[in-house]
Amino acid sequence: MRKVLLLSFALLLVLTNIALAQSRAISGKVLAAENGQPLPGVNVVVKGTTVGTFTGADGSFTVNVSNDNAVLLFSYLGYVAQEISTNGKSTISVQLREDSKALSEVVITGYGTVVNKRDAIGAISQVSAKTIENRPMPSLDKALQGQAAGVLVQANNGIPGGAVNVRIRGVGSLTAGTQPLYVVDGVQLNTRNDASFTQSNPLAFLNSNDIASIEVLKDAATAAIYGAQAANGVVLITTKKGQGGATRLNVNVYGGASTPLKTLDVLSTQDYLNLRAEARDNRLRTGMDTNRNWILDNEMRISDAKTPEQIAALPTYDWQDAALQTGRIQNYELSASGGNDKTTFYLSGSYNINEAIFKKVDFTRGTAKLDLTHKASNKLTIASSVNLSSFNQGIPFSTDGSFLGNPAFSASLMLPSNRIYNEDGSYFGLLGSGQAFPGILNQNIIAVNDFNSGNQRSNFVVGNLSATYEIIPGLSFKTFYGLDYRLVQGKQYRDPRTNDAYARKGLGQVESTWNTNFLTTQTLNYSKKFGEHSLNALAGFEYKHEQQENISASADGFPSPEFRYLNSAANPLSAGEFFSEFKRISGFGRFNYNYKSRYLLSLTTRADGSSRFGRNYRYGFFPSVQVGWNVSEESFMKGIDVLSYLKVRASYGTTGNDQIGNFASRGLYGSGAVYGGVAGVTPTQFENPELRWEKNITTNFGIDYGFFNDRITGTVEAYNRESKDLLIGQPVSWTSGYAAFTSNVGELRNRGIEVELRTANLKTESGLNWNTNFNFAYNQNRVTKLYGGLQELPGDNSIRVGHAVGTIFTQRYAGVNPATGRPMFYDKDDNITYIPVLDDRKVIGDTQPLYFGGLNNTISYKGFELDFLFQYEYGRMANDGQLNFLMENGNRAFNTLQHFYDNRWTTPGQITSVPRAYDTGVETRGVNHVTGSSRTWNKVDYIRLKNVQLAYNVPTALAQRIKLSNARIYVQGTNLYTYDDYRGYDPEFFGSATGIIPQSKNYTVGIQLGL
């Protein structure tokens, strides 16, 4: 026995030595071929085995091989995989080349389905993370401007983190919501406005540098998998995930400033005095000197300036300068990523400060994100992601019942002779000071802005938990749970030192809104290849429950401006509370098939049931079909070298719109009057059991192409979108006790063309590269039907059959009579009139652009990168409430633009478009000079240099000397230049520009470090 043991031990030693002799370590480093930067997390596997490892933070690796001829496989997302033979070497240096097609050729089509772009049939636009990273924009949707064909992004105003208007392929509804559905890592976000005192933005919680990719589903066939929520398109946002390998730390810091796009060129004290005297004299004909002295004494309240010398010495006070500021921009980010073959993680945190150009308007946000993926077994994968965000917005403040107290609106209108500060630095013209404050705007708006306070705090939790189990090869089951929770708290205080709250001794208002949006989805996914046939099938069930609760209160009678909480107030004024909820259940399925990646077919269907609709139409059915033909895969195309890729595709599908009130179909009761000491309830809304879904039916045709080995690629799309069963409130007889009855009685149509063009203009061996992306969209919108055969919606002449939603229907301005300086108009027969009537109105344009898009260029050379984006809109008109006041041109005690002063009519025979100044603006047998007409509607066509970034990637060798894996330095600017003819602050605004905060020019400098 002893001999047997000794022999066995000896044999074990021999075998071990043989094994050690055959197994040896190979080490090396993996770098990016383009810039020499190390690549952490590269998967290194010994071919034909399960032996492998990941590269570390510096790109290094060590792996054991069993023989001298072993082959190593190197693979990394976004790079071309390589196989390298060891050939007896102990060290290997590897350079991986970027695969320009790897990421762009993969698209997400909803519910986690990832397909090769050449096999995708729908109208999908992609926006990569690189195009939006480090842009100083608190809300992600602004970064989409000019990036995707057919996606129109308009800033309601420049409030950091404020609401943005996003429309995909036109306006698809008259009264229901027109915003797209946003899906973040599978969680369908609530787009309801939960804000208290300003409009909210559903994407403001996201740090843009946590984004990995964005897909925009534009046609109904692709979006139909989301059914009733997808009528206005779907925006799929995928955030960053962890990658295996050693833990990698990344630091990103940038800072800068925001400045006004422009300041309005308004009149000096001397020009204002001359204009108002001239306006008064044109009405009274009592002489310029007489009227000038009257204006000085009674309007400007300046009694000690009568001679020309004294008038010339009067100061001009710059109210815009007092209201504006150079805003501060700061951003700090730290992220970590890593893992092993079982578990990967991504962790990030950020802190952002973004101040607007008007004082006391700002945005401060802190975010934290954690993403975990764990492979529990060969069959079970568990994943979770959570986004935490808390941000505070300082919001613009207006006076009670009027936008005129907002400095963004009124600073340019203030009398230039009005002082802002006293010599001791206190505010001029406060109530009780004995100082008169002249003008129609009879209070110091800088003091109002300083004394009053308003802010809104939002707390978001957006997260998900999922488990995926592979039942058999190719068949998997996934259970998914998502949560979108937000708490929005707003507070406003009107100071007793201001005109609004002086008599009330201060006024305080608070409001809080809770919104909980819970979602669970259960899906089966089957994927299989049979020879040259490939198929993928998805079936799922979904349940969604959303609850909203709101409380509000107000009070006045505060003992001091230092006490601003409601418990300090003497007089409670109001208290309110409401609760609302809805539920939706859904079943859906999708079947994708392709043969040789040549012939493509996709069938999708979804059924939704919603508590929002009438009991007879609770359920909606939304099917779609898509077909495609990869012509370039045909044998007859092989000899055509110029045309490297060609695919034609078509789709037909339906989607629904459920963005209406939760109780729109219900018969409602509300609190009524007290009778006999008893409080009662009264009916407030008809029940409508027939209320059903708004439906969109879209036909889409597309061509994807590539020339010269894909040096030129792009897409051309044409679509027709029919919106039916639109919800409109129909007036009913007052004897019913109701004012209106909401029903499905409208129709409209959107038709359009979209073009995307991508070119690799230069690609040299020296490392000089130049790429261009261009996109263009044309949309024609038409209302095709209203109820009862009406041609115009009662109470809203912007909705007319045969015209676009937002049609401008008004009198037409004909210029100025050269002999008299009076404004002229066209009547209905195109004759000149001085008193236009309602029958003279005609369509002059519309409020939606006809064409829009963007042009992006990226130039790189040996570590340097220059990226710049132009964005444009054409064919839109807008009515600017602020500009309308400035156009009065001496009619009342407002300031005006220098342009209107310089170009006003003053002499018989003068040709100009600006009428003479006339006190009150209403001439004998005439109308107000700024009456609603084409004169007050402005073309807002523009081309804007939206973003410019210049970056330098520090050479790897230099970075490693200071213990860094990589380093990048960059400078960036946004909204740097705008080409337009618009005389207001910003042609990009959406709405009436009444008291908006204009956008700003932003300048930042930053650094990214890999540790």
From TrEMBL:
Keywords: Cell outer membrane, Membrane, Receptor, Signal, Transmembrane, Transmembrane beta strand, Transport
Pfam families: CarbopepD_reg_2 (PF13715), Plug (PF07715)
Protein name: TonB-dependent receptor
Gene3D superfamilies hit by this protein: Carboxypeptidase-like, regulatory domain (2.60.40.1120), TonB-dependent receptor, beta-barrel domain (2.40.170.20), TonB-dependent receptor, plug domain (2.170.130.10)
Record's GO cellular component terms: cell outer membrane
Superkingdom of origin: Bacteria
Similarity comment: Belongs to the TonB-dependent receptor family.
Domain TonB-dependent receptor plug: 117-234
Intracellular or extracellular location(s): Cell outer membrane
Membrane topology summary: Multi-pass membrane protein
InterPro entries: Beta-barrel_TonB_sf (IPR036942), CarboxyPept-like_regulatory (IPR008969), Plug_dom (IPR012910), Plug_dom_sf (IPR037066), TonB-dep_OMP_SusC/RagA (IPR023996), TonB-dep_OMP_SusC/RagA_CS (IPR023997), TonB-dep_rcpt-like (IPR039426)
Signal sequence region: 1-21
